[in-house]
Amino acid sequence: MNASSTIRLVHYSNRYKKELNAFALPADQERFTALPGKTLEKSMRGVFPCVILESSRPVGFFLLNQTERVYEYTENPYALLLTAFSINHLDQGKGCAERAMGMLRNFVGKDFPFVNEIVLAVNHKNVPAQKLYSKCGFVDTGLRREGRIGEQIVMRLSW
């Protein structure tokens, strides 16, 4: 990514489907998240797919959940749950994830003005993701959950 490229967060639309379906991750990363193509196959009420764009090209993806599932991670009725975060393998190491997470609070505030917290769960073995989230203002809540592949650390970003 060069200095003139811009990162933007947008809500998913079908125009990004082909590129998101082409996302790939190494096996050691794929075990921690769901690829966008698999996630988009399941449409759920209260779940909002979001795309991270570098200029106009999708480089990342995540879901914002406004469902009862949020209450597995927080008691805050004004929280959203962030899941399925990924950066396409070809675009990793360019700062896209950190820049996108830095924009998250403002992005959420535009469409969800009532929200004052975002929660997520990160596998205890996924140290790079833990460091990213911490660097972007997420804090460890002390809560632990058992995920499909082991213990998860619940983190939150509050404002």
TrEMBL record:
Enumerate the Gene3D superfamilies for this protein. Answer: 3.40.630.30
What InterPro entries does the database record attribute to this sequence? Acyl_CoA_acyltransferase, GNAT_dom
| Transferase among keywords | yes
The reply on keyword Transferase is yes
Keywords of the record, alphabetical order, are: Transferase
Please provide, alphabetically and separated by semicolons, the GO molecular function terms listed in this UniProt record: acyltransferase activity, transferring groups other than amino-acyl groups
Could you tell me which residue ranges the N-acetyltransferase domain spans? 1-159
- Mind telling me what this protein is named? Protein N-acetyltransferase, RimJ/RimL family
Organism in which the protein naturally occurs: Halobacillus aidingensis
